[in-house]
Amino acid sequence: MDARMEKKIEESVLEILETSDMQEMTEYKVRKLAAEKLGIDLSEPSRKKFVRHVVETFLEQQAQQQQQNDAVQGGQVEENASEEEEEKEEEGSNSLADGKEYDDDGDLIICRLSEKRRVTIQDFRGKTLVSIREFYKKDGKFLPTSKGISLTAEQWSSFKKNVPAIDQAIKEMEDRL
Fold it and tell me: How buried is residue 75: exposed, middle or buried, by Cβ count under 10 Å (0-12/13-18/19+)?
């Protein structure tokens, strides 16, 4: 990605962030809005990573500005907040202001089924996928394995409709044991 493209993406992302309600905005929404505005695909891993960097830098600047404003107003800035932010950074946490957690690829982590299994929402080639996958740790990062399944929104909807039947079948099977 050339410097001109990075500049265009950064300007678009910052404009979106500055005019957004940070309680409602997610990195995914920012990336999607910027992609629509620029007419380019931002779901490619290097572009996702760049957008994440711009968002994180923006949030850090907002936090610093808020701390300075608090200090100017005569209040003592709580060191706990900055310590917590530092701890999260050290742990590699990818949470945004909305409190949601994202993996290293920018995919939203919905839940952790176990230490190595997660349910994530990801954008792949313009399609939203629900991914239930096993991960492994390498060089301090969790990486996906081929063990798992990714469902399109339609497949997820069909699965979700059939959850009561699955629950019933499990109950019947357990009752037989």
Answer: exposed
Distance CA 147, CA 149 (A): 7
pTM value surpassing 0.90: no
Structural domain boundaries of the chain? Answer: 3-98, 108-176
Q: How far apart are CA 133 and CA 26, in angstroms?
A: 22
pLDDT given at position 165: 93
CATH: 2.102.10.10, 2.30.31.10, 1.10.10.10, 3.20.10.10. Which one for 108-176? Answer: 2.30.31.10
8 Å CB contact between 113 and 119: yes
| Length of the chain (residues) | 177
Residue ranges of the chain with per-residue pLDDT less than 70: 73-99
